DNA sequence: ACTAAAATTGACCAACTAGTATGTTTTTGT
DNA sequence: ACAAAAACATACTAGTTGGTCAATTTTAGT
């Protein structure tokens, strides 16, 4: 039942679980904090619950994290690190179509398989990003790289002259939505709860819509 | 500072504030409950706070609402009523372009001006819609009307053969995103906090992207 | 083996939580 | 004017919350 996000998503660079016991515990706490904060928000989450879920006592948790807000902020940073490892803009040499296909697929998959991440993120942003604000410069860098790349493609006539900011934000919005609202999507499309809803199909169709919207021939 | 959602959005059919005192109080409480639940979730919200913000005592609130969960559910229903009043699918005679332009604009405006609504809704859905589930049949009806209309337009050759479910969900996703993540959008696009970010422009561009993505000529 | 540091425990506190119980005031129909 | 019902206030309970403290156990360096 445990998420074990860090391990799952191979955040640790060398792909081995951290040897040091203390950092292992910290990671375990952070993983549980992600899902708890995602579900109940900053105020609604009980530190006690996170501690118990992580198999440590409350005082033990307070030994590693000074207070609730600090834990919350560190949870956000933890999450944004995973985020950035996965969303690096790369393989741009293949041109806009292949890039966008791969990019959207990756984002869709992440949000779909780990809705808690989308939820935690979305919630913090919706509040005006009071805690995440100071860590945004990193996202901004990636975002600006994206702008440059899209503008290049536009210049090469590989796609219509589209606002690169708008394109990136729209992709983010759509993918986040499908991850976050999987339940609603399932209901509205009449897909019953148990049977897996057609992830591949939706990814493909959404991608096509966006590609066409950018005037990318395929 | 009060939201006064009900009045703001002219939910009351005759556009006059309800005469009966008790229903006026109830509405005031529900309005405040929307923003509180949106901000802090079901668990994180204090009934006391809602009461005080609404200018009533806690026991007074408990006189009108039997318990917290009931208040939460009634808040959701309250919100979904506003929702449905605003999102009725109409003016379809003008063809897909005009309809979609108006539709997206309405949705964008609502989410942008009242992010609390998007937030409350989004949060509930992300949890799997435990409370909203039983009230979904209404949304479903509207959704199915949309499907029929889009299929008609496709049949008439007014747009590419697109999955009508996908189109509707994507529109919902994008508009919700821009309302919910206004802060992030402002930051990433370099729009400073005070100056209003160009709502008209984004609405227009997003609409164009989607229209083009559907193969609607304009 | 000894010691200092790191890690862990459980008891504790003040503030807050949802919700109730018992009244008192106000409104309403007649 | 009067009784019944609706509306509201005050005080309270039992449980939970974030957070601390001192004491204890475990670990690591020598």
Provide a brief overview of the structure:
Two copies of one chain form a homodimer. Chain A has about 220 residues and is mainly alpha-helical.
Would you mind describing this structure in some detail?
The structure is a homodimer of 218-residue chains. Chain A is an all-alpha fold. The first copy, chain A, has eleven helices and no strands. In chain A, α2 (21-44) packs across α7 (115-126) and α6 (95-113) packs parallel to α9. The longest helix of chain A is centred in the N-terminal third of the chain and has 24 residues, at 21-44. The termini of chain A are far apart. Residues 11-15 of chain A have low confidence and may be disordered. Chain A binds a DNA duplex (30 and 30 nucleotides) through residues 21-22, 46-48, 56-60, 62-63, 67-68.
Q: Over the alpha carbons, how many angstroms does the gyration radius of chain A reach?
A: 19 Å
Order of helices and strands of chain A: HHHHHHHHHHH
Structural class of chain A: mainly alpha
> How far is it from the N-terminal to the C-terminal residue of chain A, by CA?
42 Å
Shape of chain A: globular
Tell me, rounded to a whole number, the average pLDDT of chain A.
Answer: 88
Tell me the major beta sheet of chain A.
none
The proportion of strand residues of chain A reads under 5%
Largest protein-protein interface: A-B, 55 and 55 residues
Q: Assign a percent range to the helix content of chain A.
A: 55-70%
Low-confidence runs of chain A (pLDDT<50, min 5 residues)? 11-15
Number of strands of chain A: 0
- Put simply, the count of helices of chain A is 11
Oligomeric organization of the protein chains:
homodimer
């Amino acid at each position: 039942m445990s998420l074990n996000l860090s391990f799952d998503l191979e955040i640790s660079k060398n792909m081995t679980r951290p040897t040091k016991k203390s950092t292992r515990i910290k990671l375990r706490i952070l993983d549980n904090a992600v899902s708890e904060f995602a579900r109940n928000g900053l105020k609604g989450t009980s530190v006690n619950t996170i501690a118990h879920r992580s198999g440590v006592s409350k005082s033990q948790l307070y030994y590693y994290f000074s207070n609730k807000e600090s834990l919350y902020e560190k949870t956000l940073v933890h999450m944004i690190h995973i985020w950035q490892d996965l969303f690096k803009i790369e393989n741009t040499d293949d041109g806009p179509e292949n890039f966008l296909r791969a990019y959207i697929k990756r984002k869709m998959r992440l949000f779909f398989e780990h809705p808690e991440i989308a939820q935690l993120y979305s919630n913090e942003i919706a509040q005006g990003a009071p805690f995440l604000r100071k860590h945004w410069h990193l996202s901004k860098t990636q975002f600006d790289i994206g702008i440059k790349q899209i503008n290049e493609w536009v210049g090469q006539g590989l796609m219509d002259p589209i606002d690169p900011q708008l394109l990136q934000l729209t992709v983010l919005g759509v993918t986040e939505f499908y991850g976050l609202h999987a339940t609603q999507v399932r209901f509205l499309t009449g897909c019953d709860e148990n049977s897996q809803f057609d992830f591949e199909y939706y990814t493909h169709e959404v991608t096509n819509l966006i590609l066409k919207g950018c005037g990318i021939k395929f």
